[in-house]
Design brief:
Structural class: mainly beta
Strand content: 35-45%
Distance between the termini: 108 Å
Shape: rod-shaped
Length: about 260
């Protein structure tokens, strides 16, 4: 609002008049808000939301809503941390001495981060100790059957740590197959002697267990030549006896442990 005064001066008269003039603020040029495609959780929103247009020297303010709920209001989108989901971002450029404020809005979609399907370790061989077939990842836990001692095939259960912002990169049932292979038995040739009359089953079994992982499950000692049982191990794993019908000298033949 301005006042304009006009003054008239002559040799015989002096006069003046004042009028009031009001100049209204102009409307700014429209804002154009552009949101990039393919935004994922954790992206810097200041790098994916672009604003052009406007006419004033005023500050740009961002208001982000999820449905009707306001989740962010500020001038620096780099400080805006949002979960994956669908939002509306309203951008306002403040007015100044000559322009009114102007606003525009756009849809903002933040996608979940894709997590690669876990893979199992390979080449595991039984060694008598617990071995891990599937390990925890940056974004997932192993919740079951990720570690075993004995040889065999297993399925480890895995679960995402944060299902709000992360998802598997492809359809996945949450199970990872892995295995521990059986170990190759050490060659016992000429190292185990079953002399029935002068040694005990306990000593023999201790020797075999020390040389052969898993020998505690041994059931019999067979003839290498005929595959027939020579010595039968007792259920308590501390005694043994000749197989039915065998003489002591027959049991002294070359043997193999099975």
């Amino acid at each position: 609002t301005y006042e304009i005064t006009a003054q008239f001066v002559s040799d015989t008269h002096v006069g003046s008049a004042t009028v009031t003039v009001e100049i209204e603020k102009a409307e700014q040029a429209a804002l154009d808000v552009t949101v990039a495609d393919g935004i994922t959780y954790g992206d810097d929103l200041s790098e994916v939301v672009t604003v052009t247009g406007g006419s004033s020297t005023g500050t740009v303010t961002y208001t982000v809503k999820k449905g009707e709920d306001e989740v962010f209001n500020g001038t620096d989108l780099s400080t805006c941390e949002l979960d994956a989901g669908e939002y509306t971002v309203e951008v306002t450029k403040a007015g100044d001495d000559n322009y009114n404020a102007v606003s525009a809005e756009a849809a903002l979609v933040i996608n979940k981060v894709k997590v690669a399907i876990p893979t199992a370790k390979t080449g595991l061989v039984y060694n008598g100790t617990a071995q891990v077939g599937v390990e925890d990842g940056e974004h997932y836990y192993v919740v079951s059957d990720g570690s075993y001692v004995n040889a065999g095939s297993y399925q480890a259960g895995v679960s995402l740590k944060d299902t709000t912002n992360y998802e598997w990169s492809e359809p996945f049932g949450g199970k990872v197959e892995w295995q521990i292979d059986k170990a190759a038995a050490e060659n016992l040739n000429d190292e185990v002697s079953l002399r029935y009359n002068d040694t005990t089953a306990k000593n023999i079994l201790d020797m075999i267990v020390g040389k052969l992982p898993g020998a505690e499950t041994m059931l019999a000692v067979k003839s290498a030549a005929t595959e027939s049982a020579l010595v039968v191990i007792g259920e308590d794993k501390t005694t043994f006896a000749l197989a039915d019908g065998l003489e002591e000298q027959e049991a002294a033949a070359t043997i193999e442990v099975v």
